Amino acid sequence: MLQGGSVVYSRITWNPKQMNGQPCIRGMRLTVRRVVAAVAAYPNREDLFRNYPELDEEDVREALEFAASSLADESAPIPVA
Question: Residue 80: what pLDDT?
């Protein structure tokens, strides 16, 4: 279980000795990064779960939420051409 700010992630685990210290799903050797990439590669959830049978919908939801919380919510100035 991992806590990010005031949010507790029950399915995101972190072990510095596993997967180079990357956050993983439920202690498996499946990183949050890989799950997010798989969601992009398989937009159809049936295809996603067929290729990653160890995942369930809550794993995916929490991985996406965790990844989104890791991004800054700020705007950057866009230079005028």
Answer: 83
